[in-house]
Amino acid sequence: MLKENPVLRIENITKRYGQKEVLKGASLLVNQGDMKILIGPSGGGKSTFLQCINFLVTPDNGRILLDGKEVNHNSKRELYAYRQKVGMIFQDFNLFDHLTAFGNVQIGLMRVKGMGKEESGERAVSELTRVGLKDHMKKYPAQLSGGQKQRVSIARALAMDPEVMLLDEPTSALDPELITEVLAVIKDLGQNGMTMIMATHQIGFASSWANEMVFMENGVILEAGPPEKILSQADCPRTREFCSSLADLYGDSR
Amino acid sequence: MEELVFIYQDVMPSLLKGLLVSIRLIIPSALFGLMFGVIIGALRVYGNSPVQKIVNAYVAFFRGFPLVVQLFIWYFGLPHLGIYLSPFLASVIGFSLCSSAYHSEYVRGAFLSIKKGQMSAAEALGFTKIKMIGYIMLPQAFRLALPGCGNEIIYLIKYSSLAYMITCIELTGQGKIIASETFKYTEIFFIVGLVYLFLTSIATWVLHHLENRLRLPGFEHYR
Q: For residue A126, is it within any domain?
């Protein structure tokens, strides 16, 4: 089939913290340009799953293949190279507090990619311009609003030229007004063909832009499918229950 | 009047000589102490478990032995192993190592107080561990550790007076020599004390300015 062009193939990831099994064999196939939305209750394993994908959390079992090649996370070199190709956006931004917005974007280019000061500087400016923060480059994280911080963190990840972006509830720590500006940037990315996996509760956004929604609970992917199906006529009763409560809460899921 | 002439002609030149020795002891000891302290502090947080055990033992040893005893070991003990250090060198080594043990504790605390997200973000960008520590964690930790490390440097200025115990005649040593020649213990040691107060005041001033220089927006309240 023509559609089979998986950028990222995630197979049977398991993770256990002591007695608690956080992930019980989660798999996902991500094609070029996909936007996958992970939904599910808190503590359901969404965040751990995303962190396992770029090995911030080491999975106990399972494989991850990028462009058809298995990632050997025991090789430091391979791991560092892989992480550059998989950008990550965090719920609480995690900007480097001692650097300006500009410095936050530049440092990865200089210290990881080994670019020169000038070249990395130009790139940092262009990425910050892309997320609409050209005028705030010299500000430190503490001087930026939540939405601006999240946009800086998106610029920082984009500067590394990732093939896939992982977004772990990028808008959950934001005021409603600021959510819009961040979602606009993410939407823009998607339209430009960026491959993304995003955990979010913004189902209004998800229903308009996602290729596939994935419902996750208790460390298992219960159901996956196109948003129209998952949101209104899911097969699994638990998915239906969860989606209807989201719809009650946000009221914009059609 | 006689008193002033005596101070001017006899006391001041010797004390000045001693002061210069003190400064030559303090500056390298402070720099090496801080440098080793940062390295050891980082190893205590980010080293693997055998490395952590070694550096923890180092800190236990140099914080646990009285400094005078350490100086005696460097100066009187090492010759038994065929290693001869000058009083000056023995003092600088003793001060640097002892100071580094204390610095490492401030630095360790600073590293531990940085939010974990900073590390995750650096890892996610593909930073190697060493670069992450050097470029992301250390610049933040250093700022947090600075008040504590400054305290240790001021303390070092005063314990540099122990060098005279191993015949490195610095400020206190000179003071003791003149005092025992003239029996004017009170006056002379009062002056010596004032000179140390002067040195610690300068150090305080420099450290204060360094803290201001390095201060980041949003972290003002940590001071």
A: yes
SS3 category, A213:
strand
Query: Which contacts of A186-193 are long-range, i.e. CB under 8 A and separated by 24 or more positions?
Result: A186/A154, A189/A154, A189/A158, A189/A165, A190/A35, A193/A32, A193/A33
Q: Does A97 fall in a domain?
A: yes
Structure token pair of residue A195: 């491959």
Measured CA to CA, the distance from residue B6 to residue B184 in angstroms comes to 11
Looking at residue B99, its amino acid is: S
* Predicted TM-score of the model (pTM): 0.89
Mean pLDDT, residues A11-33 taken together: 93
User: Is the pLDDT score of A159 beyond 80?
Assistant: yes
Parent domain of B186: 2-222
Given a contact cutoff of 8 angstroms between Cβ atoms, the answer to whether A138 and A102 are in contact is yes
Structure tokens at B96: 């640097």
> What is the pLDDT of chain A when averaged over all its residues?
92
> Which tokens in the block code for residue A231?
């949101």
Q: What is the CATH number of the domain that holds A11?
A: 3.40.50.300
Q: Which residue, A225, A163, A194, is CA-closest to A39?
A: A225
DSSP codes of every residue in chain B:
-HHHHHIIIIIHHHHHHHHHHHHHHHHHHHHHHHHHHHHHHHHHHHS-HHHHHHHHHHHHHHHHS-HHHHHHIIIIIGGGGT----HHHHHHHHHHHHHHHHHHHHHHHHHHTS-HHHHHHHHHTT--HHHIIIIIIHHHHHHHHHHHHHHHHHHHHHHGGGGGGGT---HHHHHHHHHHHH--HHHHHHHHHHHHHHHHHHHHHHHHHHHHHH--TT-GGG-
CATH of the domain at B48: 1.10.3720.10
pLDDT of residue B223: 45
Nearest to A142 among B118, B124, B217 (CB): B217
Domain that holds residue A242: 6-250
What's the structural domain count of chain B? 1
Cβ(B18)–Cβ(B170) under 8 Å? Answer: yes
Residues of B in contact with A81 (CB under 8 A): 126
- Per the structure, the count of domains in chain A is 1
In 3D, which of B122, B143, B120 has the Cα closest to residue B131?
B122
Does A169 reside within a domain?
Answer: yes
Would you say residue A1 lies in a domain? no
Q: Are B218 and A143 in contact (CB < 8 Å)?
A: yes
The verdict on A56 touching B (C-beta cutoff 8 Å) is yes
Question: In chain B, which residues have their Cβ closer than 8 Å to the Cβ of A92?
Answer: 117
